[in-house]
Amino acid sequence: MNIFQSINLNNRSSRSRAQRGRSAGFINLLVLFFCVGLTATAQAQDNWRLYLDTVRVEQAREGGGDRPYFNTIIFRSRLMTPGSTQVELRSREPNDWVSKSEYNFGGLRGGNHMLAGDQLAIPWWMGQHEFRDVRIVKTSDPDVLHAEIFGAMIVSLDNNNTPPHLVRGQLQKVVDQVTQVLREQVETGAILGCFISPNCFTDTLGGIGLRNDLFELLGLAIGSTFNPDQLTGVQILLFPTLDGYNFNLPPIVKNGYGGPFTIGVPVLRTPTNLSGTLRFEGSGARYSVNYRFLRDTDKAETPATALTWYIRTGEDDLRAGSQAQAYATLCDGREITLALNNGAEWGKRSNNYRTLFLPAGTRLGDLRTIGLRFAPGSSGAFDTGDNWDVDAVKVLYSTPTGSGYYNYWPLLIQQGNPLQRFTGSVRNWNFDVAQGEFNRTSTLSGLRVTLRTGGDDLRTNSQAVAILNLMDGRRLRYALNRGANLGNNTTNTFTLPFYEQLGDIASISVEFTSGSTGAWFETGDNWNMDSIQVVALNKCAAKTVLDKRGAPLFRFTGEARFWSSDINY
């Protein structure tokens, strides 16, 4: 009997029929991970990146050619850790990117469609994804019971006339079910009682619980004009964080509205450097996608001469007259800045890149944070001011080769829906890139708290306060927004001065107090906090000690004013 079986041997038989129905399918893939009899020893946290590099049409479903595009559902969840599940849909427009000259360079034989044999590079904002702070566990570590699984579900479609918002709506149903299953089965540890038996994995893919939602994609004809988008295959990459784990699963074929399509799981193993081909087949089409999955091997002593920023504007443009700035802070306190647009317009769904040069002698380990700033412009007396959506940011650092040329390496790839919405009151976004390790006895230089507001904002004059609850009973209070509005679907970062040891912190709380703008008939404020991340800082080292998410994670009201969580060391 292994460690998982001994915890909850009778769990499978004790669950209700409804629970078994919800967990069938996708969770069976997760069970394959958790039912192996491994124990573990902790390793350092790593960053991993998934690259979908090129797509080649092996067989077009339409005589005039196809326009393939890819939607990716990113997910991760930790065993027996409530609030750890993260699931995000990355569905970027334009879905007809193949037809755009900036991507096909006028080289397609089918004009604005790909014929059999055509190959194109997939845009970075569609095909590049990052998983940060992944820790693989080895033998004899008790933390095996908090092991994580992460991965990506890549849904391939052939673009025709379906409005993109209908595609996103159908895919969001898949996101919702994945989230529910991970919370019910992984976060609670409900799957620990699985036996190591072939019977445990019967219909692993044949009974996939997601299939009904995937079939709903076949209803994309709703709202389309004559010719809807068609599902052309699904590939699922699963990475359990247990060392030495590898399992092979056969693909399955299902019949759909446009013909048979394949659901495959070509990768189910411990994270390791990989490269290969993902094959998407469905509705009469066959596409092959070259992919890479790589661990970040950056070293602190590596020279860094410059940072090149790639910025993808979302559905709200950067208006002419507004100003965007990139910056980097160094461990010695210096800040280097770069004006990005110089007042020029950056249209919605536009791709822009600029290079920020670093001081001579800068090493990668000298970087503490990188970020963006926004100053809204105005076009007239009745203008309410500009807002700007940033959907994705990629930052490369350059190193000299010694022969007058430079190599470029990824430092950061971050995406969101949007990643950041800049407004008149939300003008800053930053990210910790500091390297280095420290433990609970390390003296900190501060805590960085990042809050994600969901669909109900924190109103002007309402107050959010962070409270550090220390081991000796002290409670340190920090005003966060200081009465400023935290808008719907915005991310806001606050740095708390704290100069004691990490191990001195027992937990962190968020306190909410409803405020009033003085408007007639105004009711009390409510606030949806979708996520909170706390990063401990120690000179130029950073450690994530809390990362919890939900939809919302917590809804603050006049009666529900406090949220609290322990700190993870």
What characteristic shape results from the CA principal axes?
globular
Number of helices: 8
Q: Which bin fits the share of residues in helices?
A: 10-25%
Please outline the major beta sheet. Answer: 6 strands, mixed
Computed over alpha carbons, the radius of gyration is 24 Å
Are there runs of 5+ residues with pLDDT below 50, and where?
A: 1-25, 27-43, 193-211
How much is the average pLDDT? 83
**Order of strands side by side in the largest beta sheet?**
3-2-6-7-9-8
What share of the residues does DSSP label as strand, in percent? 35-45%
Total DSSP E strands: 27
Give structural attributes.
disordered N terminus; mainly beta; single chain; 11% helix; 569 residues
Descriptive report:
By secondary structure, this protein is mostly beta strands. Helices cover 11% and strands 43% of the residues. It is built from 8 helices and 27 strands. The chain has a 6-stranded mixed beta sheet with strand order 3-2-6-7-9-8, with helices on one face. Strands 1, 4, 5, 10 and 11 form a 5-stranded antiparallel beta sheet that branches. A hairpin with a 4-residue loop joins strand 21 and strand 22. The longest helix is centred in the N-terminal third of the chain and has 24 residues.
Summarize the structure.
This protein is mostly beta strands and 569 residues long.
List the SSEs and their pairings.
Layout: H1 3-7, H2 11-14, H3 17-23, H4 26-34, E1 42-59, E2 68-78, E3 86-90, H5 101-104, E4 119-121, H6 124-127, E5 128-137, E6 148-158, H7 164-187, H8 211-216, E7 230-240, E8 252-256, E9 259-268, E10 274-282, E11 285-295, E12 306-313, E13 323-330, E14 335-339, E15 351-357, E16 367-375, E17 388-400, E18 406-422, E19 428-432, E20 446-453, E21 463-470, E22 475-479, E23 491-496, E24 505-513, E25 527-538, E26 541-556, E27 562-566
Parallel strand pairs: 7-9
Antiparallel strand pairs: 1-4, 1-5, 1-11, 2-3, 2-6, 6-7, 8-9, 10-11, 12-15, 12-17, 13-14, 13-16, 16-19, 17-18, 20-23, 20-25, 21-22, 21-24, 24-27, 25-26
